[in-house]
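Q: Second attempt. The first request was missing the SMILES, so the protein and fe (ii) ion are both included now.
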Amino acid sequence: MIRENLELYQYEYPFYDRVNSKIQTYIKSLDYNSAPHRTLGQSKIRWMKNSQLNIVSREVGIVVNWITEIVNRDCCRLNLGDGSRIKLKCSEIWGVDYDKGSHLGAHSHGGYAYTFSYGVSVPKRSSTLIFPTSGRRVKQKEGHLVVFDSRLKHRVPCNKDEGRCILVGNFIYDHQSVD
Ligand SMILES: [Fe+2]
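A: Got both inputs this time. The predicted holo structure:
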């Protein structure tokens, strides 16, 4: 098998213990919904955005702003040829609950530039995030951020603990915004 070598970055949010419990409470206050890109699996997805990404939770906003800075600093940006580069913006976010036995089949987020996964609540026996076509595996912790090229396939095997909660989102190129 030819292995992908698409971008994948990992970070740690230093103040995760100040925001994560509030983010989890907010995610749990939302209704379950169908994912826009329905995949095989039993994870419970809570949709939390409108088309303007009108973030209601202050703590979710803080983390998404932190992620946006990182993505624009480290990810590949389209170059316009005059030295300016198109910015990346977060276009949607959602929360995913994994109870014991929940899982998510292999999928990618085609049509987006970058995807992130942020650990909100990660009990000890939580699943590893697996990238089957690149051979990478990421054991997420609370406050741990993974950013990857949206074409990169990933899956979550059966979760062995209750209460795994992840904040997920997609980034797109914002053609109105250059720097
Ligand atoms: Fe995904």
